[in-house]
Design brief:
heterodimer; A: about 350 residues; alpha+beta; about 35% helix; flat; B: rod-shaped
Amino acid sequence: MNPPAETSNSIRIQTRELSGQAEVDYISQLERIIRSARLNLHYPASRALRSHIGVLHPKVHRGLYPGVQVNIGSGLPTYREWTRAQTDVQIAQEQLQKLGARSELARQARASDAAIYQKLLTKFDYYCEIAERELAPLGDMTVALRKIDAQTRTAYFHIVLDKLEASGLFVRYCIDLAQTDSAWNRQVVRLDAENAAHTEQLKSLVYKCTALGSESTFIKLAALGGVRVERVVRGSVGPIIWGAADAPEELRPLMQAGGSGAFIAQFGLDMLAADIAEDRQNDPLGARELQADARLSPKVRAALLSTRQKYGVHVFGDRKFVVPRGMTLAMRDFCAARGTQNLIYSI
Amino acid sequence: MNASAQDILASEVPYLGQGISRSELESVIISERTRQRRDLETLEKLRERNAKIQENLTGEVLKLREINAHLSRERSRGELSRSMRRFLAKLPWVGGQILTHRSIEEILRNQYELSARRAKEAAEFVDRLEAAKAGLWDEIDRLNQKIVESAQNEELAAKRLGELDRLKSVLEVERTGLDPASAQARQLQALIDQTHRQLAEHTTKLKLYSTAEDRLERLQQNTRQLAKTIGHLQADIVVYVTAANEKLDLIAGQIQAIGVAADASVVMFELQNSLKAMTESVNHATRFVSETQVYFRENVDSMLEEMELYDDETEQILTGNLALNEGYDQLDIAGAMSVALADRIERAASEAGVGNSDRREREVVLDFQSPEEADAPVNRAQAKKGDFR
């Protein structure tokens, strides 16, 4: 990817505007990285994510937008850009109806020197191309009923929350919980015939917890009466480091050695469940990613540990990487030096 | 003279364009009115949409007030939790945990996405207005060409009528001294009849070109007014879209900042900032919508009323022209020529920079071609164009 054109501050979020060839290279590379990462069900849906990113490609928007704004911290487009693509897809059908027939727009563009007709024609083609596009949800939660145990009056649910986090990362939370019907507790999931619907209370709680990581989410949910949390999995897309200057200290030498085309795309996974035999950290970057957990005080960390022990759950942390072919060995050495064995895909 | 008369009668008038008839004129006017109606309908739809947006905005303002109230509660709760935290150190998840309210960040994001969509739709509408405006100015250019063409044809018709009128007078004088049964008198009578026929033909043309010029000019005025209205509206929406997008950019950054801020006081500060920006954005939109409604009331309604009046008037004029097309008499020629002459007087006076009230000045600048016309200006100048249409 070409070096960034300009860096600006948006409140506290560091952003970079890319345009022209830098924009083309960035979006194309991002699509390749997501495809190469081979994301499983614990991560945000890869196809939807790539489709969403595709809307931002200059080849698709045909120069209707001046460029793309990138969140330097996550290496992904900013919230503004994801929303832009989402809005355009949502209004595409309606706009196509309002624009009328393409042949008429083409005729007007040919007949008149006014640039607006050409712009409308370009918009028509843009909306046509994106109208049916799949989008990665920026904040969407679904609840599915797994099973019901009539004897213990317990229902088992699988909750999936896809969200673009404030940190700029795309995350998927998968939560398995069991709810026991009791007069003493308010239900967090309503069961109606075969459908399960989450309550505002649950949605609000999960939404707030997601910024804290799977461990904190587990403990917060466990504190709810009548609910037993069996598993919390958090899969994240990003951060993607595009330049040595933006890299955290431990990855900077790798990025510097990688040269101008260097990048390190990270796909973290942390899991907390009662059926994990022992705590295991296979993440070479540990808790050093953009999480609130990493910033918690030692005192709070100690409180977390004691709660975890109380519920008898263990954590498993993992991270896979996508890097340029030339950086694969160096990346592997980096992981080995930290005692982890990680999946490293190269492109 | 007869040979010369035959030459005059045989000569073609080099009218510009594809000729004119009542149906052609009607067709031009109808197609232009259709275009104007379509554009007005677009504005009407915008008015309806505006009313709907206004309704939604009222709901959004209420929602923002709710968030504000919620935020106030959170703040007071935050003060409480800070003091309680000392006592509840071993239960870090008790303090500040609110399970009965949706996440403010989520609400802000929903509101942001809704506002982004509205701003985007407004931007799309700006482009369509731009295209409508460009189309209207193209149409004004086309109408200008037609108006100039009609004016030139009107002058050609008037010139031809003058020529034929003089010829008829000469032929009638020549015939007076002859035996009505003589071959020469018969030949002269035949020429006089041919002159009459051409006079009728060119009188009709003169009236139609004159009508076309006037009607097209009126049409053009409406089109120009419509183009200007759309232009103003577009400029207003551009201001709104630009302001809304600036605010939305700010809010997008703040929403992300809220999520990454570790300190509760920073979160509160950013929330308040975000809320303030969002409220400003909504207030701005409300103001814009309200002002646009006033604009609609002042412009679209009056344009619609004027359009109805114009259509009635045009119908009457064209019906009158149809009656004229069916027959010819001397009065019509005189009338038609008077109108043409009145036009020339107005133009000459205008070129000389003379005010409308100074009739004597107009007489001075006229250049008459025949003695019969010498005493005509005052009477003809007094003739109103509309009297003969």
